[in-house]
TrEMBL record:
InterPro entries named among the record's database cross-references: EgtA_Actinobacteria, GCL_bact_plant, GCS2, Gln_synth/guanido_kin_cat_dom
Similarity comment: family membership: Belongs to the glutamate--cysteine ligase type 2 family. EgtA subfamily.
Pfam families: GCS2 (PF04107)
EC number(s) reported in the record: 6.3.2.2
Name used for this protein in its record: Glutamate--cysteine ligase EgtA
Catalytic activity as recorded in UniProt: L-cysteine + L-glutamate + ATP = gamma-L-glutamyl-L-cysteine + ADP + phosphate + H(+)
Enzyme class name: ligase
Domain of life: Bacteria
Entry's Gene Ontology BP terms: ergothioneine biosynthetic process; glutathione biosynthetic process
UniProt organism field: Streptomyces actinomycinicus
Keywords: ATP-binding, Ligase, Nucleotide-binding
GO molecular function: ATP binding; glutamate-cysteine ligase activity
Pathway where it operates: Amino-acid biosynthesis; ergothioneine biosynthesis
C-alpha cells in the first residue's frame, strides 16, 4: 500500500456515515469478588463470569475484556438517545445479574488505586504494554486500572450548522475538557506538584504516556484532513504477523488463568495465531509507508494502527468521546445524554458553538492536562461546566426524552454540577482504601 492510498483510506474512514442522530455507548467496570472486594478477580473467576455471558444480551450489546480484567459492554448504536439509554440499561441490568450469579460486583469508577495486574494477555494488549513501557512507568496502570464511559455519536455530514462534521468536531473537542471536568471520577490525592488532588487521574495517566498518540488534535480546517495527518504521523505500536504461535503471557498470567475473550473469532486482534512484534522505535505509519518498516503495509495494518490511537476524541467513522471517566451506578446515562443534547438538538448545538466562539475555546494539550488535574477547582472551567449543563437540560426536553432520563440528568446537575462538584469529590475519602462496592463490606 502506498502513502497516498493509506491517506485516502484514513480520510474516507474517519467520518464516513454522513448522518446525525444515532447514539451509542461503551461502558467499563472493575470486577470485584463479592466475598473479598479488596482482592482482584482472578482469571478463573473471570472465566466463570464469561461462561455466563455466552447467551447474547437482550439488545445486542457485546462484552469484551480489558487487560486488567475490567469488563466492557459495547451497546449497539441506536437511532436516538432514548433508545440507546433504554437498550443499554436493559443489557446492563442483565450483565449485573450475571455478575452476581458468578459472585462478582461491577464497580463504576475511573481508576483503581491498587497495584496493576495483567489478567487478559491478548496479543494486542501485550503489544500495547511493551509500547507504553517506552514512555514511562504508567503503562500497566493505564491498561489495567482504568475504566471509562465512551460516548459514540455520528460525525455529521458536509453541511454547515449543527448537522455538519466541522461543528460536531468543534464542539466535542473544544468542550471536551468541560465534559472531562464535569464527570471526573478518578481522584488521585497528593499530586507531585503539591497542588492537591488530581480529579481525573485516569486522563492524567493517559496524557502521561505517548504525548502525540493521546492528542488532542488541533481545530480548524477539514477535520478529516486533520485526523489523517495525525494518524500518519503517530508511532506504530507493533507489526502483526499471522500464523505463528503466540508469545508466552507476561507475569504468570497463564498460572492465574486468562479470561477468554467473548469476541474471539470475530476480532482479528484476538487471533490466537497472530504475533505482534515490536515496531522499530520511533517508527511512524508515514515512515513505514515510505519503506522504513519490516515489510510492506497492508490495509489491515492501517486499521489496527487507527485502533491504537487514543486522543480525547477519536474519528472512527463516527466520533468516539474518550475523555469521560466511568461513573457510579447508573450515572453513565448522564454523559451520554449531555453529549447527545449538545450535538443532536439544533438549539443546544447552536448555543454550544456560540459558547466556544465567545470563550475562544481551542484547548491545548496543557489546557487538557490542567483540566484533568484541577477540574472544577478552576473557577473559569467550573463556570463553563455549569453553562454546558444549563444548555443540555432544555435540549433534552426538546429531544423528547422520558421524565426518567431527564430526571437522572437533573439530579446529577443538582447534586454535583450546581455545587461545583464532580463525582471525584465524593470519592476522595475512600480512594486510599481499596474500592468497596456499595452495600458490600470489605475484609
Amino acid at each position: 500500500m502506498s502513502e497516498s492510498e493509506a491517506a485516502q483510506l484514513i480520510f474516507d474512514h474517519s467520518m464516513s456515515r454522513n448522518r446525525v442522530g444515532r447514539v451509542g455507548v461503551e461502558l467499563e467496570w472493575f470486577v470485584l469478588p463479592l466475598a473479598d472486594p479488596a482482592r482482584r478477580a482472578d482469571g478463573r473467576e473471570l472465566a466463570c463470569f464469561t461462561s455466563l455471558l455466552r447467551e447474547p444480551l437482550p439488545h445486542g450489546s457485546r462484552i469484551s475484556w480489558e487487560p486488567g480484567g475490567q469488563v466492557e459492554l459495547s451497546g449497539a448504536p441506536q437511532d436516538s438517545l432514548a433508545r440507546c439509554v433504554d437498550a443499554v440499561a436493559a443489557d446492563v441490568a442483565v450483565l449485573r445479574s450475571r455478575a452476581l450469579a458468578a459472585g462478582l460486583h461491577l464497580l463504576g469508577a475511573g481508576l483503581d488505586g491498587r497495584a496493576p495486574r495483567f489478567t487478559v494477555p491478548l496479543p494486542r494488549y501485550q503489544a500495547l504494554r511493551r509500547y507504553y513501557a517506552r514512555h514511562g512507568q504508567s503503562g500497566d496502570t493505564l491498561l489495567c486500572n482504568t475504566a471509562s464511559v465512551q460516548v459514540n455519536v455520528e460525525a455529521g455530514d458536509g453541511s454547515d450548522g449543527w448537522r455538519g462534521r466541522y461543528r460536531r468536531w468543534l464542539i466535542t473537542n473544544a468542550l471536551g475538557p468541560v465534559l472531562m471536568a464535569m464527570f471526573a471520577n478518578s481522584p488521585v490525592p497528593g499530586a507531585p506538584d503539591g497542588q492537591g488532588t488530581v480529579l481525573s487521574g485516569r486522563q492524567s495517566l493517559r496524557f502521561g504516556t505517548d504525548p502525540f498518540r493521546t492528542g488532542p488534535l488541533p481545530l480548524g480546517g477539514d477535520p478529516r484532513g486533520t485526523w489523517t495527518r495525525f494518524a500518519l504521523d503517530a508511532k506504530v505500536v507493533a507489526v502483526r504477523r499471522c500464523g505463528q504461535a503466540p508469545p508466552a503471557p507476561p507475569d504468570g498470567a497463564a498460572r492465574t488463568g486468562a479470561a477468554p475473550d467473548p469476541t474471539a473469532g470475530t476480532d482479528p486482534d484476538a487471533d490466537p495465531g497472530a504475533v505482534w512484534e515490536p515496531a522499530p522505535s520511533g517508527l511512524s505509519l508515514r515512515q513505514w509507508l515510505r519503506g522504513a518498516g519490516p515489510r510492506a503495509v497492508r490495509s489491515a495494518d492501517v486499521f489496527l494502527h487507527l485502533k491504537s490511537l487514543v486522543p480525547p476524541v477519536r474519528a472512527c467513522g463516527h466520533l468516539e468521546l474518550r475523555m469521560i471517566d466511568a461513573q457510579d451506578g447508573d450515572d453513565w446515562i448522564v454523559p451520554v445524554a449531555v453529549v447527545a443534547a449538545l450535538l443532536d438538538d439544533e438549539g443546544t448545538s447552536d448555543a454550544a458553538a456560540s459558547l466556544v466562539r465567545a470563550h475562544r475555546l481551542h484547548p491545548t494539550r496543557q489546557y487538557w492536562i490542567d483540566a484533568a488535574r484541577r477540574g472544577l477547582g478552576d473557577p473559569e472551567l467550573a463556570a463553563l461546566v455549569r453553562t454546558v449543563m444549563d444548555l443540555a437540560l432544555p435540549g433534552l426536553r426538546r429531544l423528547g426524552v422520558s421524565p426518567g432520563l431527564y430526571g437522572a440528568v437533573a439530579r446529577f446537575a443538582e447534586h454535583h454540577t450546581a455545587r461545583g462538584r464532580a463525582p471525584a469529590h465524593a470519592r476522595r475519602a475512600a480512594f486510599l482504601r481499596p474500592p468497596v462496592p456499595e452495600g458490600v463490606t470489605g475484609s
